[in-house]
Amino acid sequence: MSLILFAFVVRVRDGLPLSASTDFEHNRELQERKQQLRTISKALALFPDRGTVKGQKLNIYFVSSEGVSYMTVCHCSLPVAKAFCFLEDLRWEFTACYNSTVVALAARPYPFLEFDSTIQKLKQQYNQSGGPALEITLAEVQQDLNIRPPQVLTLEEVELTNGAANGHMEQVPGSGQNIRLEPVTAPGILSLVLNIMCASLNIIRGVHLIEYTFQDDYEGIWNVVAFLLAFVCCVFQCHLYLFHSSLKKPKSFTLLSVIVLCNFYLLGMRNVWQLIFHISVASLSTLLILTRKLQDRTNDCGV
Known about the structure:
By secondary structure, the chain is α+β, with helices and mostly antiparallel strands. The protein contains 10 helices and 8 strands.
């Protein structure tokens, strides 16, 4: 089984692909990792010179040096030291073939595709022999990793940093920045309409209760609070669906929990069907908030 599946060489300043290995495997996770690898390549200037992105079975490793980044997708069973040793060997081979001037003047994607044969030989050497020819090289890399361990990045960090590097952020009053999300879908529009309807019902009932509460029944103040709190949560659910936010998952579940608790508290003032309607709308909104992803703007250039 091949442990090193894909290698990629890119220019750091703009993410221009310089060369890549031929892809002979087409499993789903590999294609996902390759897409994530290209996402990373668009924001390399904002990342450290060494990094790791861990996946389910496949990991991404990269090393940047002298304006060029060397990246690879490897099976998780491959030791980290061997992965970075492969990248170091790849760096030596590339710098022996191309100088910094040639790299800087490259204007089109994949100008050094002939380097693919070198990548394939290096991959074959590692996949068949299990490592570099010289054990001292592996030992040196392991020692360097112990002193300067690579930064472990999450996919969310990669997507956010890529958005910052490519100008995909819009300034929003009262917040720092907003990532562009995928287009709103038909179910999304439906959930927004239903959420606005629920918010309107909550605010109308809450305001209507205020008049009677302060005149006759001060104990009913908690019903007012429940209606108004449910209204606020519905509004925030609409905001979470329309705009990107950090910690989206905990915020979504917190809003859903508050809406459910408020509606159960108001069970005496709402019948069972009304309660089911409000909770169902909140649950649908939560599902759509969690499944709406960041917009993908990367281009794999056919490799």
